[in-house]
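COURSE: Structural Biology Practicum
ASSIGNMENT: Worksheet 4, Part C
STUDENT ID: 0417
INSTRUCTIONS: Below are two proteins. For each, the amino acid sequence is given first, followed by its structure token string. Answer the questions at the end about the second protein only.

PROTEIN I
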Amino acid sequence: MNRFLISYIVLLSFLVFFESCKQKSADTKLVYELDSTYQFPYSILEADEKYNLKDELREISGLSYYNDHSLLCVNDEKGIIYKFSLKKKEITKKYVFDKSGDYEGIEVVGDQVFVLRSDGNIFAVDHMKNEDILSVKTKTQLNAGNNTEGLGYDFQSNSLLVACKGNPGINNNFKGKRAIYKYSLKTNKLSDSPAFLIDQEQIRRILDFDGYTSFSVTLVESINPSQGDFTFQPSAVAMHPITNNLYVLGSVGKLLLVLNPEGDVLAIVKLKRKMFRQPEGICFSPDGTMYISNEGKGRAANIYRFSYHK
């Protein structure tokens, strides 16, 4: 099959898929709760506050809670950690930790800050309160084909959570799934197999994809297995500080998934495209307040704050 024909098929499939998404976005049902004992604890259409970001964070790609007054952010172009003040609503400090690159996730663990690059490399950043920042890079088994985008922290196992937007496995394993690995901060090693697997077919079944959408998804996946299945592609991951549930955000698919600690899907939340243009970051404060960041996509990027309803 020649390159032109492949490109045409991919484009056609995307058009079919996104047209279907437009139709489904008009549906009134946004939250699909799969456990009768679980209720999604956020009003996803009613943010308590919206923070508009300046051009430096137009490509914001990762978000982490730092303290009561600020969040830490990275963008997918520069090796800089940005400190964003929630009170002043602006960047108050910058920390250069490495050269330019595709940085996708950030997580604060104690006095350390970890940054994830899309090729699977993890940067441990120390001494942020001093002028001389120390940054140490660790290469994992994951690579650019896995397209690592989400970075969270599992405080129960003292491990980083690394979500793959692309290939779920290291050797083309786990077809039809999206994977999240654990990186132990005790051993500084990545788990050999995923700690969590998200079944794409289950998502399509729950959201009741029509025949055209299912066909386009299957077709593109057969052409480009690494990133073809655009039902759901994780862009951020965070563990809830109170319930220990896992929140997995997907810009591709415009979904927010909630998993229990065993990996079972508790809820699927459809994100309105008008509000969530390109959701790329998620984090929580200790009281359960949720923050979600959106890349600019030609406009100003932003961060939404949502109160936790127990």
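PROTEIN II
(use this one for the questions)
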Amino acid sequence: MELGIGMFGDLAIDKNTGKIQDTGEKLREILEEVKLADEVGLDVFGMGEHHRPDYAVSSPEILLAAAASVTKNIKLMSTVTVLSSSEPVNVYQNFSTIDQISGGRAEIGVGRGSFIESFPLFGYNLKDYDALFEEKLDLLLKINTQENVSWKGTLRPPMVNQTVYPRAVNNGQLPIWIAVGGTPESILRAAKLGLPLILAIIGGMPAQFKPHMDFYKEQYLKHGHDPAKMQLGIHSHTFVSDNEAICDGYFENYAAQMDRIGSSRGWAPYTKHQFNGGRSKDGALFIGDPSAVTDKILHMHELFGITRFIAHMDVGAPDHKLMMKSIELFGTKVAPEVRKALQK
């Protein structure tokens, strides 16, 4: 099982003044953090796309290209690229460029987007939410496998024998993951196409998602794909500290960000009871000391048979020093214990 770190580039917001952290400062911190993730032997680094004032990264590709220059081994993926409001030709070209810079370490995670700010920003109509993703995924997959592309859709002009360069390192093909939040239609799409699936589990109890994973496996096999090539991942909020006071105090950062998001979605204020429930054995928050986080990841492997776990670590913008320590512990304490247990 691969183990990685994921981020959205949350900007710190002063609770007293409301002042938002400087974007450049945050981006430089992220690059230090991904460099450390590489140095401690983690397998994957993921960066998401957002177009809000409380996130620093609107273009994962640019951040990942910068990360490619300060890392040696870690895979670099988007978590996620909002494909519905993106141009598939540019998406492929940007990630194939990262792939060339990094020596074949680029991957794409695509999704429809739970945040919809990019649709009006780039001139797309939300009524086409599903159709845009379906069509653009079809084009992206064709570009990924064919150097010369002829394609026709309904929402984008056709391509007639067009060449797309540069090509990715591995015969021109990039790994493309489908990132979902639990919508059965999205899971079925990934299974039909035989594409790797990464499921965001950020609330409730992970066990509740087992039917989704079982559905994917069933449909993947039903559509004739090689079970040996099946890849399943989860992406969950994580923070590691060997100091319980720090883990407990992280509630302030976490709740503040949940409430910022929830204010536009009609969510009730996030409570300490929810936080503690999420941290419990059956909850979806991987927040605790290395031993507790190790045990929960191993439980996810036992429950779902996952091949990748992405620890989303920067919710609410924890202090940079605490983030560095969390990544260090994840790479030097959690990852070795998970790998050791899975080798038995």
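ANSWER KEY EXCERPT:
Q1: DSSP finds eleven helices and twelve strands in the chain.
Q2: The two ends are 13 Å apart (CA to CA).
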